[in-house]
UniProtKB/TrEMBL annotation:
PANTHER family: MITOGEN-ACTIVATED PROTEIN KINASE KINASE KINASE 20-RELATED (PTHR43289), SERINE_THREONINE-PROTEIN KINASE NEKL-3 (PTHR43289:SF6)
Pfam families on file: Pkinase
Record-given protein name: non-specific serine/threonine protein kinase
Annotated organism of origin: Dactylosporangium siamense
Gene3D superfamilies: Phosphorylase Kinase, domain 1, Transferase(Phosphotransferase) domain 1
Location of the region described as Disordered in the Swiss-Prot/TrEMBL record: 500-522
Organism phylogeny: Bacteria, Bacillati, Actinomycetota, Actinomycetes, Micromonosporales
CDD domains for this protein: STKc_PknB_like (cd14014)
PROSITE patterns: PROTEIN_KINASE_DOM, PROTEIN_KINASE_ST
Compositional bias annotation for Polar residues: 500-514
Top-level enzyme category: transferase
SMART domains listed in its UniProt record: S_TKc
Domain Protein kinase: 1-254
Length: 522
């Protein structure tokens, strides 16, 4: 390694530009400011680095070539040298909606791949999304939980503003995949606005005021289409269970058909910097790795005797396969069979093309075929039908990503503020976007009971109609007597009480036509 020169310096690490003489390429050498004090920490760092190396074969993850520890105990990473970060881009010219969408689905795909391998990122932000030499976005600092924990411990008013962190971070909840989704959506919002969500234009908030801001709705962005704002708001939902998974976020973004829109105005000169906001005297950078200890990263290190434990990633997982697993509480990364990089990249390309076709077809069905669907103003919906009645009435499949427990109707039913059925042509408070079956003898009492909580979620609502992100979700449950007599159904309602609607608001999304001659569910 020759030609070491400082490329960038931050509060946590110093990045050097260098030349890897063995292959004649320029690389970035990132050296952490802190040191690994114990052999256990060093083994753990190298184990996590190997897991991160497996992910670097993804086209939108920065390539990791090597990792190790310097003589003075500073962990280092040798990575692909990129041309800059989106943190620099957003200071100059914020992204258009179409650009943000493209960056979003590519990074979401990288996160989905990582979550499936049992690895969390924990620090998604504009500064960690880099420009590759080919102009593509690539996610850096992947999967190094031990480094993220260091940074969590130093999260103070003087050293860090977690501008892209979800509410549960402030409650010291265990890291989960849903936090990565929140951070990515907050990042995409910032890339279009030029500053993080909810931040005032004239000041940088304190850490305490940031916590209070979670009670505020994420404001609209000038020039940003409603459907993109709806996806971002869903990803930044305060409740983890209401956020889409990374793979769902990817599919939602791919399905957006965006028209060219004006660029968001760049914040005027003199505005508070984007990041970092809270400054303190940074520790002196570690010395450049004049002599790097022999790296076990490339050759492979003998597995230590510490036992690894499997933990589930705390995020919804829709689809036919088993759920992914997340890192254990101590950050140990699970040993996962390595896929050949060439095969993975080929499969990713094929999958991306297939997903794009499916998503566009699905979007056409949801937004074109059903745009004119409307209720029958002459009918008066009645009490929840039985399961048998709903099947006979021509219930249709919901959009593919919706939980299989949900059913969607070919028409929308409407309700007043007291959840009494009323014609959709008149004033009403609620509209049904999905429903689910309850077996005879069920004892569902609240909206948080299973399976109601899974079916009647903001995530389901957005998959049915992306424009509905600003609406609230409620549930119409059958009475205990109806449940005992069953089978029966519960209804998922969307509205914005006390406001009322006149005429149907939701677009019915379905994947197949209703059977010919089917009767009404009521």
């Amino acid at each position: 390694m020759t030609g070491l020169s400082v490329f960038a310096r931050g509060g946590y690490a110093t990045v050097y530009r260098a030349t890897q003489e063995s292959v004649g390429r320029e690389v970035a050498v990132k050296v952490e400011n802190r040191t690994l004090e114990t052999d256990r920490d060093r083994r753990r760092f190298l184990r996590e680095a190997r897991a991160a190396g497996r992910m670097s074969s993804h086209p939108h993850v920065v390539d990791l070539f090597d990792a190790g520890v310097t003589e003075l105990g500073h962990p280092y990473l040798i990575m692909e040298l990129c041309d800059g970060s989106y943190a620099e881009r957003m200071k100059d010219t914020p992204l258009t909606a179409a650009e943000a969408r493209d960056v979003g689905f590519k990074i979401a795909d990288a996160l989905a791949d990582a979550h499936a391998l049992g690895v969390l990122h924990r620090d998604v932000k504009p500064a960690n999304i880099l420009f590759s030499r080919f102009g593509e976005p690539a996610l850096a600092d992947f999967g190094l939980a031990i480094l993220a924990e260091w940074r969590d411990e130093s999260m103070t008013l003087d050293t860090l503003t977690p501008a892209y962190a979800p509410p549960e971070t402030f409650r010291q909840s265990p890291p989960a995949a849903a936090a990565d989704v929140y951070a990515l959506c907050a990042t995409l919002y910032a890339l279009m606005r030029g500053r993080p969500p909810r931040w005032r234009d004239d000041q940088a908030p304190s850490l305490l005021s940031l916590v209070d801001m979670f009670n505020e709705q994420v404001p609209d962005l000038p020039g940003c289409p409603e459907n993109l704002m709806a996806v971002l708001r869903a990803g930044m939902a305060n409740e983890e269970a209401d956020r889409p998974s990374a793979i769902e976020l990817r599919d939602l973004l791919i399905g957006l058909r965006l028209e060219p829109v004006p660029q968001v105005v760049v914040p005027p000169l003199g505005s508070p910097p984007v990041e970092p906001v809270y400054t303190s005297k940074a520790p002196p950078p570690p010395p450049p790795p004049d002599r790097i200890l022999g790296s076990p990263f490339m050759a492979g290190e003998e597995q230590d005797a510490e036992q690894t434990v499997q933990h589930a990633v705390e995020a919804p997982w829709l689809g036919g396969g088993p759920p992914p697993v997340g890192p254990p509480a101590d950050g140990v990364i699970l040993d996962t069979p390595q896929r050949p990089p060439g095969a993975r990249k080929f499969l990713l390309i094929v999958a991306a093309v297939a997903l794009l076709v499916v998503a566009l077809v699905g979007a056409g069905i949801a937004y074109n075929l059903n745009a004119g669907a409307g209720p029958d103003p002459t009918r008066s919906p009645s009490a929840p039908p039985t399961s048998a009645q709903s099947q006979a009435a021509g219930a249709v499949a919901c959009p593919p990503a919706v939980t299989k427990l949900a059913r969607c109707s070919p028409t929308v039913e409407c309700f007043d503020a007291d959840k009494r059925a009323v014609p959709c042509a008149g004033a009403h408070t609620w509209e049904e976007f999905a429903y689910g079956d309850l077996a005879k003898g069920s004892q569902v009492k609240t909206a948080r009971d299973s399976p109601v909580d899974e079916v009647c979620s903001l995530k389901t609502l957005l998959l049915v109609d992306l424009r509905a992100a600003n609406l609230k979700v409620d549930v119409l449950l059958p009475t205990p007597a109806d449940q005992q007599a069953g089978p029966t159904v519960f209804r998922c309602l969307a509205g914005n009480p006390p406001s009322t609607f006149t005429g149907q608001q939701l677009r019915v999304s379905r994947t197949s036509p209703a059977p010919s001659g089917a009767g009404r569910r009521s």
